[in-house]
Write a structure and sequence with these properties.
Order of helices and strands: EEEHHHEHEHEEHEHHEHEHHHEH
Number of domains: 1
Shape: globular
Number of helices: 13
Strand content: 25-35%
Strand order of the largest sheet: 6-5-4-7-8-11-10
CATH superfamily: Vaccinia Virus protein VP39
Structural class: alpha/beta
Amino acid sequence: MLRQQEAHAGARRDTHVFGILRGEFHECYPTIFVLPTSSGRELVVAPFLISPLSPRKRGGGEQLRPMSHHETTVQSYSEKGSLSYEDPANKNFLYGDITVRFIKNIIFPPKDRVVLDLGCGTGFVFDETYQLFHDRGIRGIGVEPADGMRQIAMTKYRDDHSYSFLAGSFEHIPLPDRSVDHIVSTLALHWVESLSVAAAEMRRVLNPGGNADLLMIARDDGARFKKAIVAALRRHLTFGQIMATATLVQRVTPAQVKEAFAPFVGSFDVDVHRFDEVVYGRFADHMKWWQARSSPVIAEVRDKKQFMQDLREELEAIRIDRGIPFDASYLWIKITATESGMSSL
């Protein structure tokens, strides 16, 4: 079972960073972020952060524009992360295990006929709920921006017309208003550029009387583990390069989630529960899940073999008898229709 712990009240908003500089053109813009360090959390004010730019088309006059943090992440997951997600070792440890337990705790009411999985990846949610959906005649729709991941999902379900997979995102859901009965999402919502825009889009496509169950990493997820990663990166990248690998992600408190999900207020109840647990494993265990997600972080590292040795050294330094700890923190955002919302059906 998931283990719940109340969130700390009054915690200040932090912005965490990771990602990768891509593209041969770039520009600068001001930013402020918090960078985890081996001695604690250090507030860094960066005058300029290098942002990748989308390449100009050959022979065209298209204006260069910055490749957004979201686009950079999508490209990385599509190119290098898609097959790693299908690795059983990735599915059965840490985030994969958390996801499976989360899915098993979701209640799909009898009225559910269409379930939307946002940020569906390779179709993991539908893999876990396949028999239930088949028995009840539930239609599954997956929306995923990363082509590589979406293609895997489409291939797996190509002979089952109860499932469809569409290109899109939280902020741009390619579905009509009030067209789904239940929205689910597992560890994808933190990638959005605007949590409030994503919430408004989900509110638009959700039927009155519908439900949503969203799993999202919490603000301080893996804080100690990630300090070890940064310590290893510092042996290979300059401070400026580490800043240049920055991609802003949503790291929020339950109170900030509720604020962003204001479009649901009145017709829906929005409950946000925080869960904390420490997951122990060998270095090899952690690398199975981390390497599936790390390509944006280490692409600028030239000697990746030496980096992995350095990373192992840093992680072994925090090992205890039970193994290397990962301090996982995540949020379950549960949205249910109120009586007034049900009356609008």
